[in-house]
Amino acid sequence: MQLLCLADRDPAESLPALDLLPHEVRTSPLSLRVPDTMPSRFDAVLIDGTLDARRARTACQALAGTTQTPRVVILPEVALTALTADWGVSELLLPGASPAEVESRLRLLERGSAADAPVAEVQAAGVVIDESNFIARVHGRTLDLTYKEFELLHFLAAHPGRVFTREQLLSDVWGTDYFGGTRTVDVHVRRLRAKLGEHEGLISTVRGVGYGFARERDYDDD
Q1: Which residue numbers delimit the OmpR/PhoB-type domain (predicted)?
Q2: Which tens digits make up the pLDDT trace of 94-145?
Q3: Is 180 exposed, middle or buried (0-12, 13-18, 19+ CB in 10 A)?
Q4: For the chain: N or C, fewer Cβ within 10 A?
Q5: Strands (DSSP E) along 56-159, which ranges?
């Protein structure tokens, strides 16, 4: 499984069993806002509440409003009385949980989400984004995209007609912890347009503002 762990330290310090399991774990600071599209790329999101249960609760509630990805909070036993339904979590793990327990809970979550969740797909102006399989197509043609190009196209296609500044795209696609400049947005837009080919006009430049996707005055969808 691919896991996203929101934590302010090495996840293995909060849940040692993770080091003994074969899952891929990506860590993002608990204090930073997670881009809305990021959790859908993972099988589950772990929220570390072992250092600060209050901040963990805030993170859990924020995620509950933006993603259907299962959310698992890690809490010490002394903080369990603070855990209520309004946290919006799918599962709870104690720091001392054994590898077998962690594995079984994660697998149950995986099966449940696969059975209950609808097919994750975004469609706009001839572009189809299959989130589950990381496939993007334009009028039936599969695009050969890098991970970040896929993320950028996914975000734009999910908001057709809207215009975003480079700063907004950098924050929502690359994340608030990215230290590069807005120039990287221009580079990725240029690459995306090249891969869209004859449909490059789907991504329009709005002078003095940023970029828009499938804007009516710029693109006439057949």
Answers
A1: 117-215
A2: 999 999 989 888 888 876 554 444 446 788 999 999 876 778 999 999 999 8
A3: exposed
A4: C
A5: 71-74, 91-93, 121-124, 127-130, 135-138, 141-142
